Amino acid sequence: MNRMDIDFVITWVDMDDPEWQADFAKYSGKQENTKNGVSKARFRDYGFLRYWFRGVEKFAPWVRKIHFVTCGQKPEWLDENHPKIHLVNHEEFIPNQFLPTYNSVVIERYLHRIPGLADHFVYFNDDCYIIRSISQERFFKNGLPCDIAAFHYNPSWSQWYKRIKNNLRIINQNFNKKEVLNRFHDKWFNKSYGSKARWNYILEPYGKFITLRTPHNAQPFLKKTFEEVWTVAQAELTKTSANRFRALSDYTPELFRTWQICKGNFEAYNTYSDTKMFPLMIRPKQAARAIQEQSYSLVCINDNIHVRNYERVMGNIDKAFESILPDASDFERRDNKLTD
Questions:
Q1: 277-316 per-position pLDDT tens digit
Q2: Of 82, 188, 208, 251, which has the highest C-beta tally within 10 A?
Q3: What is the distance between the alpha carbons of residues 209 and 319, in angstroms, rounded to a whole number?
Q4: Cα–Cα distance list, 102 to 5, 62, 72, 76, 296 (Å)
């Protein structure tokens, strides 16, 4: 089994930071926080970040480097001198004219420019946690990202779905669907996908690429994928990098993932088999139970401004994490461990 250098990239923001709040209010024009692009749920910190690091240390000790991406913030308990931690400021990889940005899709499209980033990396949002042992081969096999290539009906009812259609314009300009499905037939029609691939069979003879299933997941990438997409879509990506908050003209990270799949640069894997997203608005108890019972390798704890009994829900999630990851990791400062 060949071992390779694999990095993790995680983005994070501390919305309780007074300086961040002042800048946010300045640029957002003090918009109502119920608006999609400036919703509190997009930025608030659950206080679970230390469990993310504990999970990495315990369940994925093979990671080479963790690139911790912020606008210059750092949790007070994080040991920035740990040899695996690389604190990354937005200023280090995002062009200055687009800063500050509060639009995650802008941050994500520049990840390949992080100094020292490995050619193989896994991108995490800070709501996706590793909760049981996981191998390199879960993310990369034969040097390629593990992923599911399956179409998904796009009802266009949300802003996210509308942005996906922006991505698809670029994909369909650069790839012929029939040719791609023929060339990589075994990857698109892999038996492991089960019913998740039903639209592949329905749409095989017809039309252009539509929306792909996008698991709420830690997403493996090849750095060269970003470089290829930027080569063909530099004008579009640069123009929309000026969107300081989410906008309907955005291109999302699914552009890079879809490109990677269309190029055949992936190994077929049913991501849903060991990954689960729990919307806390409707499944808070199931989320806590899944963590405590370690039912999956990866869980996404999806926040929402409409979560009822928020403090109680988050308290139950915290207890679940504490039950499986009670010990401070080496990523936590020694003085913090002693006072924990």
A1: 998 777 779 999 999 999 999 999 877 666 678 888 888 9
A2: 251
A3: 43
A4: 30, 32, 13, 22, 31
What's the one-letter identity of residue 28? S
Give me 137's structure tokens: 């081969």
Q: Which of 162, 159, 121 is nearest to 260 (CA)?
A: 121
DSSP state of 48: -
In angstroms, the first-to-last Cα distance of the chain is 39
Secondary structure class of 67 (helix, strand, coil): strand
Q: Domains (ranges, CATH) in the chain? A: 6-339 (3.90.550)
pLDDT digits (tens, 9 = 90+) for 12-24: 998 888 899 899 8
Q: What are phi and psi of 90, to 5 degrees?
A: -50, -35
pLDDT of res. 37: 44
- Cβ neighbors of 124 (< 8 A, separation 6 or more) are 8, 9, 10, 11, 52, 218
